[in-house]
Design brief:
Blueprint: E1 9-10, E2 16-24, H1 32-42, E3 46-50, H2 58-68, E4 72-76, E5 84-87, E6 92-100, E7 111-119, E8 122-130, H3 135-151, E9 157-162, H4 170-178, E10 180-181, H5 182-185, E11 204-208, E12 213-218, H6 228-234, E13 240-246
Parallel strand pairs: 2-3, 8-9
Antiparallel strand pairs: 1-2, 2-13, 3-5, 4-5, 6-7, 7-8, 9-11, 10-11, 12-13
Protein name: Endonuclease
Domain Endonuclease/exonuclease/phosphatase: 21-237
Organism: Streptomyces varsoviensis
Length: 251
């Protein structure tokens, strides 16, 4: 059985232990009960979703997922062309902003869902992304991701999502050079995020800025309550769970 990550809590010094989950949910086209069980078992404070429902009654689908996982909608979905952010009631949402990225003719529209969340005295910027299948477009989106993360105006932030790139790719490398790759910093659980039985690849990741301590990051296979059958049924990606210590803001 996989050892659990530290539980969410606020430390005496005002820092916050925060669990962030990144999950491509394939527009909830698969087993939504299995999806909800996986998310609940991970006990996240924040979920960075990719491929949230984007079309007919997408807001109702987002609300249904939030209810099933004891979370609330923060932002994103169709308005960010797929990325979405959910959270518990623990953080206060200071701001939420959806961003549509420049589009290359013939390719899918992409976007970012962003938010600034306050956990007591700790403030955390959050960005959920799903980058392009095209190498050239993806690299440009990686540069824009770093710009948008800085534009959140907080010293500590996390970016999480489906990169459509591997650690040896130039966009993944761009982000890993500027930020801290959760798995590389503190590996926990399983590394590869492609569907069980598919070629082994790590194309989903959680990154953090300087000052955020990564306590563990990886696919929560074997975590109590996360079953292989649910992971297979929920969607075509595996989730990435990270436990982070976010420093208290300076007074």
């Amino acid at each position: 059985m996989l050892a659990d990550l530290p539980a969410s809590r606020t430390e005496p010094d005002g820092s916050a232990l925060v669990r962030v989950l990144s999950y491509n949910i394939r527009s909830m086209r698969d087993d939504t009960d299995a999806l909800a069980r996986v998310i609940r078992a991970c006990a996240p404070d924040v979920v960075c979703v990719q491929e949230a429902p984007r079309f007919f009654r997408w807001r109702k689908a987002a609300a249904r997922l939030a209810r099933a996982t004891d979370l609330v909608y923060v932002g994103g979905g169709a308005t960010a062309s797929g990325p979405m952010i959910l959270s518990t009631l623990r953080p206060h949402v200071e701001q939420a902003r959806d961003i549509l990225l420049p589009r290359t003719p013939g390719l899918h529209q992409r976007g970012f869902a962003t938010a600034v969340l306050r956990f007591g005295r700790a403030r955390l910027g959050v960005l959920s992304c799903h980058l392009s299948m095209s190498d050239a477009e993806r690299y440009g989106q990686g540069r824009l991701l770093l710009d948008e993360l800085a534009a959140l105006g907080v010293p500590h932030a996390v970016a999480a999502g489906d990169l459509n790139d591997r650690p040896d790719g130039r966009t993944f490398g761009l982000l890993a050079d500027a930020l801290h790759d959760g798995w590389a910093a503190k590996p926990w659980g399983r590394e590869h995020t492609t569907r069980l039985g598919d070629p082994l690849q790590r194309i989903d990741a959680v990154f953090a800025t300087d000052g955020v301590e990564i306590l563990g990051c990886g696919v929560p296979m074997g975590l109590p309550g996360v079953t292989e059958s649910d992971l297979r049924a929920a969607t075509d990606h595996l989730p990435v769970l990270a436990a982070l210590r976010v420093p208290a803001a300076e007074s």
